[in-house]
Amino acid sequence: MRSPVPEYLDEVLSACAKDDSEPAAIALTTVDDAHHGAGDVEHRFAIQSMSKAFAYALAIERLGWDAVHEKIDVEPSGEAFNEISLDSQTGRPHNPMINAGAIATAGLIGSFDTFAEFASQLAGRELEMDDEVYASESKEAHRNLALAHLLAHYGIIDDPVEAVDHYLRQCALSVDVRDLATMASVLANGGVHPDSGERLMAERTAIQVLSVMATCGMYDDAGDWLASVGIPAKSGVSGGIIGVLPGQVGIAVFSPGLDDHGTSIMGVEMMRRMSAEMGMHLMNPGRPSRSALADVLEDGDETVYVLSGDLMFSSAESLLARLIAHPPETERVVFDITRVTEVSDVGRRMVAEARDRLEQDGASVEIRDNDGDDRLGQ
Amino acid sequence: MRSPVPEYLDEVLSACAKDDSEPAAIALTTVDDAHHGAGDVEHRFAIQSMSKAFAYALAIERLGWDAVHEKIDVEPSGEAFNEISLDSQTGRPHNPMINAGAIATAGLIGSFDTFAEFASQLAGRELEMDDEVYASESKEAHRNLALAHLLAHYGIIDDPVEAVDHYLRQCALSVDVRDLATMASVLANGGVHPDSGERLMAERTAIQVLSVMATCGMYDDAGDWLASVGIPAKSGVSGGIIGVLPGQVGIAVFSPGLDDHGTSIMGVEMMRRMSAEMGMHLMNPGRPSRSALADVLEDGDETVYVLSGDLMFSSAESLLARLIAHPPETERVVFDITRVTEVSDVGRRMVAEARDRLEQDGASVEIRDNDGDDRLGQ
Amino acid sequence: MRSPVPEYLDEVLSACAKDDSEPAAIALTTVDDAHHGAGDVEHRFAIQSMSKAFAYALAIERLGWDAVHEKIDVEPSGEAFNEISLDSQTGRPHNPMINAGAIATAGLIGSFDTFAEFASQLAGRELEMDDEVYASESKEAHRNLALAHLLAHYGIIDDPVEAVDHYLRQCALSVDVRDLATMASVLANGGVHPDSGERLMAERTAIQVLSVMATCGMYDDAGDWLASVGIPAKSGVSGGIIGVLPGQVGIAVFSPGLDDHGTSIMGVEMMRRMSAEMGMHLMNPGRPSRSALADVLEDGDETVYVLSGDLMFSSAESLLARLIAHPPETERVVFDITRVTEVSDVGRRMVAEARDRLEQDGASVEIRDNDGDDRLGQ
Amino acid sequence: MRSPVPEYLDEVLSACAKDDSEPAAIALTTVDDAHHGAGDVEHRFAIQSMSKAFAYALAIERLGWDAVHEKIDVEPSGEAFNEISLDSQTGRPHNPMINAGAIATAGLIGSFDTFAEFASQLAGRELEMDDEVYASESKEAHRNLALAHLLAHYGIIDDPVEAVDHYLRQCALSVDVRDLATMASVLANGGVHPDSGERLMAERTAIQVLSVMATCGMYDDAGDWLASVGIPAKSGVSGGIIGVLPGQVGIAVFSPGLDDHGTSIMGVEMMRRMSAEMGMHLMNPGRPSRSALADVLEDGDETVYVLSGDLMFSSAESLLARLIAHPPETERVVFDITRVTEVSDVGRRMVAEARDRLEQDGASVEIRDNDGDDRLGQ
């Protein structure tokens, strides 16, 4: 049996394509390390501004959140990617997704090799710089040098010429959509690589990067993007866009034709279509489990509460609500969590609390988990 | 047995309180219609800017998304709530969460009574205007009148004096945190009231409102708020803040001391603490179900794939991946979805596709659902 | 004999005219009360923004410079006339030549009748409001009302609706180019009406108004206007422009076709041409007298220093330089100032000083002035 | 006999001095090449931003007005000297008096030696660069390099690093107040050096530079400066200010204590005091000659019109007005211009015209000028 996903992705490509002579590609990597693609998935292009998300993650990992936040803010600027968007008092770039912030990030990391190594770990293969792209952009770097000198003026970075060089090398890393989807999937998976299981960044770092992608990743179109597509994303002028649905999937699309925002026209359409058809919107109320209480079985002298899905705040709450409204009439009570997928901290705390109180009321409580598991920490 | 939630909320209140003489309160309403609160939950105050989220929803419901979007953009402005933040060409307010956008929204709705009725439906009780607040703010309305006349100049609204009057009445509606939590829970629940089950707005409208709250709800602090708290929210100068975790819960906090953004200082702290302790961040990778494939049972001549949690893209994908890697060796195949909580469109499509292909390969496939259910539409 | 000036003005009109069907006119009034005109000098139109210069003068006369300056700044804004150009902290309009500043000025004056009376004194005839213009602009006053409410918000004015009404009435005063040239000539003449000799404002007020016209009168074109035309000026959207050459002449031109700045296209050309051909540029080094020392006559036992032109700093200096370089060899010294046109304060002080010192050196000094004059205050 | 001017300048210094330990100086150079000074007139300091006025003159002289204007606008920016004040579409600096415009000017001139030579000609002695100032500012040039790279990005200049180096050398030229007063006097004298009589720039260039100094020379304080002081000026962060009264005098003051605008506090006070006491305001209505018609002598068969002062538009007009109002009753008419100081083009044209018309009416007209002069071009 073959997976239907590639065919679906082919459909998306065909529906959005405008010009068959241009390369176009989609790739997905799930947090369970499944990989799918369609179109020119081996076509290589420069990572460009999509690198900003990963460089920001690396800077936080190496310097810590406070040190990075002191130099780079996280507010949407409502401006285009190449605006001189610095705080007028402090010179702090508005966010790491505009060029000023990305050059500051490069300056904080301090070494291109460090970034290249990190990006290669994320992609799962050794990424290389496209010398031609680097050479060409080095010649036209006046705006970036202007930003870098301003940053140096305000004491955000030390060596503006080096920071721009590092940034241009970073942007010239050559990738294909499969690389990008895998890199994005690490963010989706809370910082753990879906393939190797290796943690490449703290979960809090991944959350931080995704949040900034959500508010600042699409430049002056950020609000409309989040409202209509609802997937934290970052575009690059090479025609690529990466998107991340937390806990689910990393996505990458590619097609070179750009709109006024410097964003791939067909790439945007592919993302919109997948978001709509796959129900991927971040604000989709159906995403998390609704209720953990799948069943209540009165079995002679015991009452069994069967929980399923994710045991999070709202689902643990449904158990508590039931216990309060209809206290168990038997002395023995069982919480069956064998069907539960995920247990969050708050879910664990709430069920433990319920157990304590039932026991105070004189009941005996058993937690029934899968063999060998003890997810409520009895 | 009593619920531990109110005690937890009491803890949050105590930990964040600075000044016992000031009123303070928290309330939560889950999508399953559970209500919890702590502190001065009956204390009434003006809804102020928190009304903007609901007025925006009402405008979309009544005029349609296109008509509203033509008049009011959805981009973060990076500015304070009272800035004159209009597009310099068209006069279109940057978003509906700043005053200019909210006055435009009031102008589009066209009647205060219509809004009051909608807000009362959301709260589940008849809300009334605080005459004193309305009278006091009507005297100091010069900035809002300035914005309204500009909007009229650009043809966004017709009658600026009426629109401001409507807006001031809207802001003067008197609520407590329980009202606000319930109103917010309708957004969390995709537009359906958790109590009555009545749909008060389209799911797409709720998604739109939550998206705009995420990028624009906290004014010039929007980026930091989303990164650190990760809950779409809206504050009001009366000291209230509402927050919404899609699919889970509506939250309201209240405490009158304000920061420079006009946002409740203690309210922000309470939201931060709950987000951190309850794992409520929108970018939390653990939120949705990770995998639907709970078990694979080889039972003589049939193979049973037991699915649980939410059947969404990423979870359906885990089933497909298994089928591809290890094709079933029996002729009979069962997909057991009795433990599945939610079935998304894409999940349904993907499992149906898997079934077709297995049948093409010669297998017989059975979908096993709860009695009476047929969630995969066989 | 007839004056050649009207024929010259006719030439200017013909050279600049683009469309004979449109009315066009020029008028000049010198500080010696000579009046010249060409074209449709009796054509009436609304004074519009040209009134701003005179209203500003009236406000200073009535409230004093400090009170006016506290409410209205004098800095060029680099913006178009209808921009919301207020100081972001204080709400103080950038200058009195933009609408915000003019509405603030109207608010400070507090009465339209007071302004109409003042404008009538300047014009030398009773000016009346064009009811149709007033009625039409009252209907479209949203932008001005927006500005006025903002000014009220910042405490710059008290009653925004009244201030805008006053401002619109002021702008609707009906004038022809002869009225405007005469009004402008009062500014040229340091505040004294060239006809009646009546002082209508302090000299310092006239200087203040002309300075603000020079930097702010032509909106976002102020710098280019001063550099290329060099005449403090103010335009109105009715198609008129007034210009003032201090100490010489008030100018008014009219033609209804407007450019993007809302300024008369043909009016600008006429002003440019007259400036170039008549050497009217404010920075023209030839404007003031170069030297007062017309001749030195050694006549037996006395030396006569014949002074002519204006006795100002630079010209008095030329006398002193001569006295120092070549001290008089006779005991009797005469300063003949019968040919001197103007005596400035500094000129008087310097010549008096020279006289004292010569007398200390033993000389006897006589000041020879026209019969009955004693301009050096002996 | 000694001149009283130095004593007056000493008075100004004493009255404005705040701290005797700091150097302070004033110098004046008239268009008649008189030199006066008070205080530490030999104290050397870097010319800094005062060089901008002269560099702008040089650029216009070498490239022509059009080529310079294409690259550098002449509009006040309402911003501080170090703002990034470029047109958002074209990158054209708002004016040549802010750093961006001055760096563009340096780039247009293309060679520091060329500027140093020109500045030395203006000062009348060979000016040298202060190596220490240059070395120190080269280390802190990040903001200027940022501006220069932006200019290069927009194609305003070619080599940003070279342009900044040139600009920093230009700013480090070492001068004293006497040098500056003499340099300023060339602008006052329409481009002709008062000492050598050599023309160093076209009169139109001097007018252009003075106009831009008037609107843009004092940065965000330009409007208030022109209104209160009324002297086109340019300040430098070394503590110097130059001022120019067209046709009269070049002024330089110096004192190192700076205000928030980067302008000498005591320097400003000295300029204000001299302006007020010497009647130097550009808008002073008393500056030019009021009337050329000093006398009308009926002498038997001839009428002699005695003209004096400057023969400009307004003064020639007074002659024409008299001829029209009271036509001469004799056949012979004499225009005695022996006392006339200056004859402008328009004055010449107007008197010539008057003569033609009188002759057409049958009169015989004689122009009586000083021996050997023929200033009306008979």
TrEMBL record, chains A, B, C, D:
UniProt entry keywords in alphabetical sequence: Acetylation, Hydrolase
Reaction equations catalysed: L-glutamine + H2O = L-glutamate + NH4(+)
Mind telling me which Pfam families this protein's record contains?
A: Glutaminase, STAS
Provide the GO biological process annotations: glutamate biosynthetic process; L-glutamine catabolic process
Which residues does the UniProt record annotate as the domain STAS?
292-378
GO MF annotation list: glutaminase activity
Detail which positions bind substrate. 49, 99, 137, 144, 167, 219, 237
Instruction: Please name the Gene3D superfamilies in this protein's record.
Output: DD-peptidase/beta-lactamase superfamily (3.40.710.10), STAS domain (3.30.750.24)
Could you say which protein family the record assigns here? Answer: Belongs to the glutaminase family.
Q: Subunit comment for this entry? A: Homotetramer.
Q: What protein name is recorded for this chain?
A: Glutaminase
Q: Which gene encodes it?
A: glsA
